[in-house]
Amino acid sequence: MLAKLRSELKKHSDKTYNFNQFFKTPIKAYGVRYPVLRKLAKKHCPDFVDEKLCDALWKSGMHEEAVVAIAWAKQKKIATLELMKTWLDSSVSNWSQVDDICLSVLGPMVEKDASLIPKIKSWTKATSLWTRRASAVAFVIPGRHGHYLNHIFDVSKKLMHDPEDLVQKGYGWALKEASKPHQRKVFEFVLQHKKKMTRTALRYAIELLPAHMKRRAMAKE
Fold it and tell me: How far apart are the first and last CA of the chain?
């Protein structure tokens, strides 16, 4: 089963695709473009998928296999909060895998079940930078839809002093998405906290705001 999938991944490797251009440190990848990868994951998903099989893919060290693991776990409804947390804590190799977990699994999951929010918010204190990033990026989809604004603000405040750039970008992204349905409230939040925010997080958060709001947010006071 896995041998056939891996053969297909190798077959669809695009040698002209510089996959590592998106990452600061090289990662192991076949070089399959994402639209092709999504189709392969769907086409080759077996009838029976369990946690052990997905774990084998996730821990293989190959980026595309991790993406397939997330897709299969979601499709077969075994992508529990606990399993995603285990992967985030121990086996993530880059920000793209974190975001795939958050956008494909955690975001939709939280939208359907608000009782999961306290657990995800507790991840702001995690040892793993990837889990801390996920504590914010898990709210990107809900924030885009206008949900859980106060939780996004709370997570953002908890992560403001995080030393990792990718975590700063994570909560900045959540604020940016929340600014689509809640422009004024996000703007007011940024004005209130901008002295504590890194420049990176601030720029992400205000990216979609009108020019006059951006100028005020960026102004030194």
Answer: 61
Is 196 in contact with 161 (CB distance < 8 Å)?
yes
Provide DSSP, 133-172: HHHHHTTHHHHHTT--HHHHHHHHHHHTT-S-HHHHHHHH
CA distance 26 to 150: 37
What are the b/e assignments for 70-92, b being 16+ CB within 10 Å?
A: bbbbbebeebebebbbebbeebb
Domain edges within the chain: 1-79, 98-221
Amino acid code (one letter) for 128: S
Contact call for residues 91 and 62 (beta carbons, < 8 A): no
CATH fold for the domain made of 98-221:
Leucine-rich Repeat Variant (1.25.10)
Range from 23-27, 50-54, 115-119, 210-214 carrying the lowest mean pLDDT: 23-27
Chain segment 78-99, per-residue pLDDT in tens: 999 999 999 999 889 899 999 9
What's this model's pTM, rounded to 2 decimal places? 0.93
Backbone phi, psi, residue 13, to 5°: -65, 130
Distance CA 61, CA 11 (A): 18
* Structural tokens at position 39: 């189709």
